[in-house]
Amino acid sequence: MPLTADVAAQQVQERLRALHRYIYDIEAERGRSEQCIDQILRAEKAVESSPSNDESSGSSQQQMQLKNLYKAGLTAAEQEERVIRLALSKIYEIRAIKNERRIQARHAGNKETIGCGALMKMLLSAAQTLPLHVGRAGERAPALCGAVPADSGHVARPGDAVAALVRVSDKEENWILAEVVSWLPAQGKYEVDDIDEEQKNRHVLSKRRVVPLPLMRADPRTDEQALFPKGAVVMALYPQTTCFYRAVVNRLPTSAADPYEVLFEDSSYADGYSPPERVAQRYVIAIKEGKGRST
Protein backbone atom coordinates (compact mmCIF):
# COMPACT_ATOMS: atom_id res chain seq x y z
CA MET A 1 0.00 0.00 0.00
CA PRO A 2 1.18 3.54 -0.73
CA LEU A 3 2.65 5.32 2.28
CA THR A 4 0.48 8.38 2.97
CA ALA A 5 2.01 11.62 4.19
CA ASP A 6 0.33 11.29 7.60
CA VAL A 7 1.47 7.70 8.10
CA ALA A 8 5.01 8.57 6.97
CA ALA A 9 5.14 11.53 9.37
CA GLN A 10 3.92 9.33 12.23
CA GLN A 11 6.51 6.66 11.45
CA VAL A 12 9.30 9.23 11.31
CA GLN A 13 8.23 10.73 14.66
CA GLU A 14 8.18 7.29 16.29
CA ARG A 15 11.70 6.61 15.12
CA LEU A 16 12.89 10.06 16.15
CA ARG A 17 11.59 9.45 19.68
CA ALA A 18 13.38 6.09 19.78
CA LEU A 19 16.54 7.73 18.44
CA HIS A 20 16.32 10.40 21.15
CA ARG A 21 16.23 7.69 23.83
CA TYR A 22 19.13 5.83 22.24
CA ILE A 23 21.28 8.97 22.22
CA TYR A 24 20.86 9.27 26.00
CA ASP A 25 21.60 5.54 26.34
CA ILE A 26 24.76 5.95 24.27
CA GLU A 27 25.99 8.71 26.58
CA ALA A 28 25.35 6.52 29.62
CA GLU A 29 27.12 3.53 28.05
CA ARG A 30 30.02 5.73 26.99
CA GLY A 31 30.36 6.96 30.58
CA ARG A 32 30.55 3.36 31.79
CA SER A 33 33.13 2.51 29.14
CA GLU A 34 35.28 5.49 30.09
CA GLN A 35 35.05 4.50 33.76
CA CYS A 36 36.23 0.98 32.87
CA ILE A 37 39.13 2.38 30.86
CA ASP A 38 40.14 4.63 33.77
CA GLN A 39 40.09 1.66 36.16
CA ILE A 40 42.15 -0.42 33.73
CA LEU A 41 44.79 2.30 33.38
CA ARG A 42 45.10 2.65 37.15
CA ALA A 43 45.33 -1.13 37.59
CA GLU A 44 48.00 -1.41 34.88
CA LYS A 45 50.04 1.29 36.57
CA ALA A 46 49.75 -0.55 39.89
CA VAL A 47 50.92 -3.82 38.31
CA GLU A 48 53.88 -2.09 36.62
CA SER A 49 54.99 -0.44 39.85
CA SER A 50 54.67 -3.61 41.97
CA PRO A 51 57.78 -5.82 42.61
CA SER A 52 58.41 -8.23 39.73
CA ASN A 53 57.87 -11.36 41.77
CA ASP A 54 55.63 -13.87 40.02
CA GLU A 55 55.08 -15.79 43.24
CA SER A 56 53.88 -12.74 45.15
CA SER A 57 50.26 -13.21 46.18
CA GLY A 58 49.70 -9.48 45.91
CA SER A 59 50.99 -9.42 42.34
CA SER A 60 48.81 -12.39 41.39
CA GLN A 61 45.78 -10.67 42.85
CA GLN A 62 46.55 -7.50 40.90
CA GLN A 63 46.89 -9.43 37.66
CA MET A 64 43.61 -11.25 38.31
CA GLN A 65 41.93 -7.94 39.07
CA LEU A 66 43.33 -6.49 35.84
CA LYS A 67 42.05 -9.48 33.88
CA ASN A 68 38.56 -8.98 35.34
CA LEU A 69 38.72 -5.29 34.46
CA TYR A 70 39.61 -6.17 30.85
CA LYS A 71 36.54 -8.41 30.68
CA ALA A 72 34.33 -5.71 32.18
CA GLY A 73 35.73 -3.16 29.72
CA LEU A 74 35.07 -5.47 26.78
CA THR A 75 31.49 -6.06 27.93
CA ALA A 76 30.92 -2.31 28.34
CA ALA A 77 32.33 -1.61 24.87
CA GLU A 78 30.13 -4.31 23.31
CA GLN A 79 27.05 -2.86 25.02
CA GLU A 80 27.93 0.63 23.79
CA GLU A 81 28.35 -0.75 20.26
CA ARG A 82 24.96 -2.49 20.48
CA VAL A 83 23.16 0.74 21.41
CA ILE A 84 24.98 2.73 18.71
CA ARG A 85 23.91 0.17 16.09
CA LEU A 86 20.30 0.42 17.33
CA ALA A 87 20.47 4.21 16.90
CA LEU A 88 21.94 3.84 13.41
CA SER A 89 19.14 1.43 12.46
CA LYS A 90 16.57 4.12 13.32
CA ILE A 91 18.42 6.67 11.18
CA TYR A 92 18.43 4.24 8.24
CA GLU A 93 14.71 3.56 8.74
CA ILE A 94 13.97 7.30 8.63
CA ARG A 95 16.00 7.61 5.42
CA ALA A 96 14.05 4.71 3.89
CA ILE A 97 10.66 6.23 4.81
CA LYS A 98 11.57 9.61 3.33
CA ASN A 99 12.96 7.98 0.20
CA GLU A 100 9.76 5.96 -0.27
CA ARG A 101 7.68 9.13 0.00
CA ARG A 102 9.92 10.88 -2.53
CA ILE A 103 9.54 7.98 -5.00
CA GLN A 104 5.76 7.98 -4.55
CA ALA A 105 5.62 11.72 -5.22
CA ARG A 106 7.69 11.22 -8.36
CA HIS A 107 5.39 8.45 -9.63
CA ALA A 108 2.36 10.62 -8.88
CA GLY A 109 3.77 13.35 -11.11
CA ASN A 110 4.57 15.70 -8.22
CA LYS A 111 8.16 16.08 -9.32
CA GLU A 112 9.64 19.47 -8.64
CA THR A 113 12.20 20.67 -11.18
CA ILE A 114 15.55 21.28 -9.49
CA GLY A 115 17.97 23.85 -10.85
CA CYS A 116 21.56 22.95 -11.68
CA GLY A 117 23.06 24.59 -8.58
CA ALA A 118 20.57 22.95 -6.24
CA LEU A 119 21.12 19.58 -7.97
CA MET A 120 24.89 19.77 -7.43
CA LYS A 121 24.34 20.52 -3.72
CA MET A 122 21.89 17.61 -3.50
CA LEU A 123 24.39 15.21 -5.08
CA LEU A 124 27.13 16.36 -2.70
CA SER A 125 24.82 15.91 0.28
CA ALA A 126 23.82 12.43 -0.92
CA ALA A 127 27.49 11.46 -1.09
CA GLN A 128 28.36 12.90 2.32
CA THR A 129 25.41 11.25 4.08
CA LEU A 130 25.76 7.86 2.40
CA PRO A 131 25.74 5.30 5.25
CA LEU A 132 29.17 4.22 6.47
CA HIS A 133 29.83 0.49 6.74
CA VAL A 134 30.86 -0.29 10.30
CA GLY A 135 31.64 -3.98 10.39
CA ARG A 136 32.40 -6.23 13.31
CA ALA A 137 35.85 -7.70 13.89
CA GLY A 138 36.85 -9.92 10.98
CA GLU A 139 33.80 -8.98 8.89
CA ARG A 140 34.46 -8.13 5.26
CA ALA A 141 32.75 -5.25 3.52
CA PRO A 142 29.54 -6.37 1.77
CA ALA A 143 28.54 -5.91 -1.86
CA LEU A 144 28.06 -2.28 -2.95
CA CYS A 145 30.22 -0.97 -0.15
CA GLY A 146 32.81 1.33 -1.69
CA ALA A 147 34.48 -0.46 -4.60
CA VAL A 148 32.92 -3.86 -3.85
CA PRO A 149 30.73 -4.69 -6.88
CA ALA A 150 27.12 -5.83 -6.73
CA ASP A 151 26.37 -9.55 -6.61
CA SER A 152 25.64 -11.11 -10.01
CA GLY A 153 21.94 -11.50 -9.21
CA HIS A 154 21.52 -8.03 -7.73
CA VAL A 155 18.52 -6.01 -8.91
CA ALA A 156 18.55 -2.31 -8.06
CA ARG A 157 15.45 -1.02 -6.30
CA PRO A 158 13.30 1.95 -7.32
CA GLY A 159 15.04 5.11 -6.16
CA ASP A 160 18.54 3.60 -6.28
CA ALA A 161 21.21 5.72 -7.97
CA VAL A 162 22.98 4.14 -10.94
CA ALA A 163 25.31 4.94 -13.80
CA ALA A 164 23.43 4.35 -17.06
CA LEU A 165 24.86 4.14 -20.56
CA VAL A 166 22.47 6.07 -22.81
CA ARG A 167 22.55 7.13 -26.43
CA VAL A 168 22.70 10.91 -26.82
CA SER A 169 23.10 10.93 -30.62
CA ASP A 170 23.54 8.52 -33.51
CA LYS A 171 27.29 8.37 -32.85
CA GLU A 172 27.60 9.07 -29.15
CA GLU A 173 26.80 7.31 -25.91
CA ASN A 174 27.34 8.70 -22.41
CA TRP A 175 27.37 7.25 -18.93
CA ILE A 176 24.95 9.44 -16.98
CA LEU A 177 23.85 9.57 -13.36
CA ALA A 178 20.32 8.18 -13.21
CA GLU A 179 17.71 6.89 -10.78
CA VAL A 180 15.93 3.56 -11.09
CA VAL A 181 12.19 3.86 -11.74
CA SER A 182 11.48 0.15 -12.04
CA TRP A 183 12.87 -3.25 -12.99
CA LEU A 184 11.08 -4.96 -15.88
CA PRO A 185 11.70 -8.67 -15.21
CA ALA A 186 9.95 -9.93 -18.36
CA GLN A 187 12.36 -7.87 -20.47
CA GLY A 188 15.36 -8.07 -18.17
CA LYS A 189 15.63 -4.28 -18.37
CA TYR A 190 15.62 -1.24 -16.13
CA GLU A 191 13.51 1.87 -16.52
CA VAL A 192 15.61 4.82 -15.33
CA ASP A 193 15.29 8.58 -15.17
CA ASP A 194 18.13 10.99 -15.91
CA ILE A 195 18.98 12.58 -12.54
CA ASP A 196 19.17 15.92 -14.32
CA GLU A 197 15.46 16.71 -14.29
CA GLU A 198 15.90 19.50 -16.83
CA GLN A 199 16.55 16.74 -19.38
CA LYS A 200 13.22 15.04 -18.53
CA ASN A 201 14.52 11.84 -20.13
CA ARG A 202 13.42 8.32 -19.25
CA HIS A 203 15.34 5.34 -20.62
CA VAL A 204 14.69 1.61 -20.84
CA LEU A 205 18.06 -0.13 -20.68
CA SER A 206 19.42 -3.66 -20.48
CA LYS A 207 21.07 -4.70 -17.23
CA ARG A 208 24.57 -4.52 -18.75
CA ARG A 209 24.04 -0.80 -19.42
CA VAL A 210 23.28 -0.06 -15.77
CA VAL A 211 25.84 -0.03 -12.94
CA PRO A 212 24.50 0.35 -9.37
CA LEU A 213 26.26 3.01 -7.30
CA PRO A 214 27.60 2.13 -3.82
CA LEU A 215 25.00 1.89 -1.07
CA MET A 216 27.62 2.38 1.66
CA ARG A 217 30.93 4.14 2.12
CA ALA A 218 34.03 2.16 3.07
CA ASP A 219 36.22 3.31 5.96
CA PRO A 220 39.88 3.26 4.81
CA ARG A 221 41.01 2.49 8.38
CA THR A 222 39.03 -0.77 8.59
CA ASP A 223 38.03 -1.70 5.01
CA GLU A 224 40.91 -0.59 2.80
CA GLN A 225 40.30 -3.64 0.58
CA ALA A 226 36.90 -2.12 -0.29
CA LEU A 227 38.57 0.85 -2.01
CA PHE A 228 39.97 1.08 -5.53
CA PRO A 229 43.78 0.91 -5.46
CA LYS A 230 46.00 3.72 -6.67
CA GLY A 231 46.34 3.51 -10.45
CA ALA A 232 43.01 1.73 -10.99
CA VAL A 233 41.05 2.78 -14.08
CA VAL A 234 37.53 3.70 -13.02
CA MET A 235 34.48 5.67 -14.07
CA ALA A 236 33.99 8.83 -12.01
CA LEU A 237 31.41 11.59 -11.98
CA TYR A 238 33.04 14.70 -13.41
CA PRO A 239 32.65 17.61 -10.92
CA GLN A 240 29.66 19.90 -11.52
CA THR A 241 28.20 17.50 -14.12
CA THR A 242 25.97 14.42 -14.10
CA CYS A 243 28.16 12.37 -16.46
CA PHE A 244 30.74 9.66 -15.72
CA TYR A 245 34.07 9.57 -17.52
CA ARG A 246 37.13 7.34 -17.47
CA ALA A 247 39.68 8.29 -14.85
CA VAL A 248 42.68 6.94 -12.97
CA VAL A 249 42.78 6.83 -9.16
CA ASN A 250 45.59 9.12 -8.05
CA ARG A 251 45.01 9.11 -4.29
CA LEU A 252 42.78 7.04 -2.02
CA PRO A 253 40.53 8.45 0.70
CA THR A 254 42.33 8.68 4.05
CA SER A 255 39.16 8.86 6.14
CA ALA A 256 35.53 7.86 5.78
CA ALA A 257 34.59 11.42 4.78
CA ASP A 258 37.49 11.88 2.38
CA PRO A 259 36.96 11.66 -1.42
CA TYR A 260 39.16 10.01 -4.02
CA GLU A 261 41.57 12.11 -6.03
CA VAL A 262 41.33 11.09 -9.69
CA LEU A 263 42.85 12.09 -13.03
CA PHE A 264 40.31 12.19 -15.86
CA GLU A 265 41.36 11.13 -19.33
CA ASP A 266 41.58 14.34 -21.34
CA SER A 267 43.41 14.60 -24.67
CA SER A 268 43.60 18.41 -24.39
CA TYR A 269 46.41 18.00 -21.84
CA ALA A 270 49.92 17.02 -22.87
CA ASP A 271 50.03 13.88 -20.71
CA GLY A 272 46.45 12.91 -21.61
CA TYR A 273 45.04 13.52 -18.13
CA SER A 274 43.32 16.41 -16.40
CA PRO A 275 44.65 17.98 -13.19
CA PRO A 276 43.60 16.09 -10.04
CA GLU A 277 39.90 16.26 -9.17
CA ARG A 278 38.20 15.19 -5.94
CA VAL A 279 35.28 12.76 -6.35
CA ALA A 280 33.27 11.19 -3.53
CA GLN A 281 33.23 7.40 -3.03
CA ARG A 282 29.58 7.27 -4.10
CA TYR A 283 30.48 8.46 -7.60
CA VAL A 284 33.53 6.29 -8.34
CA ILE A 285 32.70 2.90 -9.83
CA ALA A 286 34.36 0.05 -11.73
CA ILE A 287 34.72 0.63 -15.43
CA LYS A 288 32.95 -1.67 -17.87
CA GLU A 289 35.39 -2.76 -20.54
CA GLY A 290 34.46 -1.60 -24.02
CA LYS A 291 32.11 1.01 -22.61
CA GLY A 292 32.37 4.41 -21.03
CA ARG A 293 34.53 6.13 -23.63
CA SER A 294 32.37 9.18 -23.96
CA THR A 295 33.00 12.24 -26.02
TrEMBL record:
It comes from Papilio xuthus (Asian swallowtail butterfly). Pfam families: SGF29_Tudor. One of its GO terms (cellular component) is nucleus. Residues 152-293 form the SGF29 C-terminal domain. Keywords: Coiled coil, Nucleus, Transcription, Transcription regulation. It is found in: Nucleus. CDD domains: Tudor_SGF29_rpt1, Tudor_SGF29_rpt2. This is SAGA-associated factor 29 homolog. The keyword Flavoprotein does not apply. Residues 49-63 have a biased composition (Low complexity). The keyword Ion transport does not apply. It comes from the Eukaryota. Residues 45-64 are annotated as: Disordered. Gene3D superfamilies: 2.30.30.140.
